[in-house]
Specification:
Blueprint lengths: L2 H11 L4 H10 L4 H11 L24 E6 L14 H7 L7 E3 L5 E3 L19 E5 L14 H11 L9 H4 L2 E8 L2 E6 L12 H4 L5 H4 L4 H6 L7 E7 L3 E6 L13 E6 L3 H9 L6 E2 L6 H8 L4 E6 L3 E7 L2 E2 L10 E5 L6 H10 L2 H8 L28 H10 L3 E3 L2 E4 L2 E2 L1 E7 L2 H15 L4 E7 L1 H4 L17 E6 L7 H4 L29 H10 L5 H17 L3 E7 L2 E6 L27
Parallel strand pairs: 1-9, 1-10, 18-19, 18-20
Antiparallel strand pairs: 2-3, 4-6, 5-6, 7-8, 8-9, 10-22, 11-22, 12-20, 12-21, 13-14, 15-16, 16-17
Helix pairs in contact: 1-2, 10-11, 12-14, 18-19
Length: 602
Amino acid sequence: MSRFTDLFQQLQSGAISRRDFLQASLAGGMALPVALHAVAVTGQTPVPAADRPMVGVEGKERGSAGELRLIQWQAPTLLATHSAQGGKDNLAAALIMEPLTNYLADGTVVPNLVSRIPSVENGLLAEDATSVTYELLPDVVWSDGEPFTAEDVKFTWEWVTNRENGATSFETYDTIQNVVVVDDHTVTFEFSGPQPAWYVPFAGTWWGSIYPRHILENGNYDEFMMNPVGTGPYVLESFAPNDQVVYVMNENYRDRAKPYFERVLLKGGGDASSAARSVLQSGEYDLAWNLQVEPEVLQSMEEAGLGTVAVYPGSSLEHINLQLADPHTEVDGEQSSLAKPNPTLADAEVRRALAAAIDRDLIATTFYGEGEPAATNVLVGLPAMESSREPFTFNSDEAAAILEAAGWMLDGDVRKKDGVELSLTYNTTVNSVRQKTQAVVKSNLESIGVKVELKQTDAGIYFDSSAGNTQSYIHFYDDMGMSTANIDSPFPLSYMNRWYAGPDNANVPQKANDWGGQNLCRYVNPDYDATFEQAAVEVDPVASAELFIALNDFVIDDNVVIPLVQRAAEKLAVSNRLVLDNIAAGPFETIYWNIQNWTTSE
């Protein structure tokens, strides 16, 4: 038994505290992301990368598996990672673009476009974590045949951190102060101070993709978003935004034995139920993603015997964002402007009442099922960062009393204060589970005198990242908006960036930044921002965890978000045709991150 396994078992049994586990694991050489976050996500001892099974891979011929048919009911709008506003775009880009490193499900960082993971022991990571050096794989080329070099890495950092480009991944890369090209295949990142998350920039398919300098140094970004050049296993054959993407093998892919599927069809549109049905009942597709479908419905579909529902534990959050700016009044050409507070939700007591009035347990049990419990925090699935604050308690009487005490008095069936009616618009995507959740929330809130207008928007429009799309969740022209948020790395700084306003409120989506910010709720709290900035540089793992807990508590205590359900990392419908063990799903990567290893069971 390894020392780490013994420590982990002691933690599980309660024989040692979380703090003692962290300190002992790190003292023994365990990597921070594994010791602090990832084991907590899976509840299992990590499997070394070299030992991960790839059943069915050996002996397969490149391109021999024919066409892979994917159905992704939220269709992509663009194919460029650093401009993606929703997971649908990151997913579609992951077949073409690649990061330097990837995350296994347990949070372990593994090489992709580099020869090895930096460490103090191998001399690539500074002892004080102020710099890190990566050795790039030799002889890698872009899909157009041009060499992949350290200059591409530096260019990507320069592009992302140029505010004029409106990169949605800006905060992830802004931790790097300078990028030094040592030679064609060696690059060093220099940080302004000790960087606890030195491994996060250029890691993972959510935000880590590298852009080709030779394509973009003279502009052409609009064209690139629709037809990117990458180093991944596939290249684009055709793309119809908000409909479908067709990929073919990248003839210049570095592993000459992969990918195993010659072509990939990614079909968008519809809803989660129809996507699941197309795999489990009709057999038209091989895999359906993000099955936000009632448990009994999926179970009945499985009875056809054509496929399996696979659930992977995760740290995603189904939640309701509350809009603190006024979404119904235009100020200088934009709604939800920081210049005008929301006449109802700017009242902290109203938000507190809403939090107490919603029956999360009913929603989780009825619409999600086993493995997806009710949530009362925004940081979920990372027990090392689990807040000790008292969880929400569903209590309609208490919620009504809070509103009464705050001066919101019933006038008929709806409360008013100073002539303002307590009326809210509540928007989300078209989805059976979400519409049933909306119905529960509406009933809960109307029982305490809150008028609720339900709205539904097609997912392709709701998550469309175009600056001119006023129906998007980024513009957030409603009082309440429901969606899922994903923790994209074992160090959840970019996740907590959702409530960081930043200098001059630059992280708040607004006309001035082409709606490029991540702080949808328009939450401006100097104490939160100061804690966030401290968390970004704290290298002590215990202190780091405590800072993230504090960030969670700011958001929850201020009731900026109403957490609903801790969702699985992935809930997929997988046809019997695919080798399930090859699909290495986890909380920190898009589902397609290792698609070059997928193959058939035939």
